[in-house]
Design brief:
Number of helices: 4
Distance between the termini: 37 Å
Largest sheet: 6 strands, antiparallel, barrel
Strand order of the largest sheet: 9-12-11-10-13-14
Helix content: 10-25%
Structural class: alpha+beta
Order of helices and strands: EHEEEHEEEEHHEEEEEE
Strand content: 25-35%
Shape: globular
Length: 247
């Protein structure tokens, strides 16, 4: 079964839970009225700290985050809590996920139709899904792989994946994110490339000896790469692999 044992689910309760999160995360918490919300929390300089799903759970909000980031995220949220009526507690919930339309009691994954649904009610997910192939095909970054402490969310495409709301008002790192959206043209970012051969995640990509970017998740003849767009083209190398980008 596809239960996601790489994830930790926190339960956020208290009268101030929604307003507390609204001032911190990149998406609009009011969207929980319609289902699951994909969001992130940033540094004041606009760089990535964690991405996660928020799901309604009666009088609580469930926060579904990569287990490796759960301790630091809990610490960060606790630091911001101050005197707000908010409690943050770990749960033993193991998320399930699967492809297709969301079944009763599950939530459609807001990032893309191709990644199906998520559920938090103890059900089993679908077996033998090649999630990396789906991610690569639709350029969906993964926590700890494409999403790192050096990541700017717009370069990672989180606006395209419904992870950023530009109308919700202030949150930590909002000024930098808004400036990148409205005042600059992105010169670097994640994109899907064609690849012949194989190279490890993190392999530098070059073109005629000049650095172009970094190779990340590979699936078949495609991969996700972080590219400097003005140098990227159809004749690039990543270790022993040949890499091509057509924009």
């Amino acid at each position: 079964m596809t239960t996601d044992i790489t994830r930790t689910v926190l339960r956020i309760t208290g009268a101030d839970r929604e307003s507390f999160l609204q001032g911190l995360v990149t998406n609009d918490v009011n969207k929980l009225a319609d289902g699951i919300v994909y969001a992130a929390i940033l540094t004041p300089q606009g760089k990535y700290l964690a991405d996660f799903f928020l799901a309604p759970d009666g009088g609580a909000i469930l926060l579904d985050v990569a287990t490796e980031l759960a301790p630091s995220l809990t610490q960060r949220l606790t630091m911001y809590k101050l005197r707000a009526d908010v409690q943050i507690t770990p749960t033993d919930i193991v998320p399930a996920r699967g492809l297709g339309d969301a079944p009763q009691g599950a939530f459609a994954d807001p990032r893309h139709d191709a990644v199906g649904w998520r559920a938090y009610d103890g059900r089993a997910g679908q077996e033998e899904v090649d999630w990396d192939a789906i991610r690569v095909g639709h350029c969906i970054p993964e926590t700890g792989v494409e999403l790192t402490p050096d990541t700017y969310l717009l370069e990672a495409g989180l606006d395209r994946l419904n992870g950023v709301d530009f109308r919700k008002g202030c949150y930590v790192g909002q000024e930098v994110t808004a400036r990148m959206k409205h005042k600059t043209e992105l010169k670097k970012g994640l994109s899907v490339v064609q690849i012949s051969g194989a190279a490890p995640v993190g392999t530098p990509i070059t073109s005629h000896g000049k650095p172009v970017g970094t190779l990340f998740t590979q699936s078949g003849d495609q991969a996700i790469a972080y590219l400097r767009f003005d140098r990227a083209g159809t004749d690039m190398q990543a270790g022993d692999a040949s890499v091509s980008w057509v924009g």
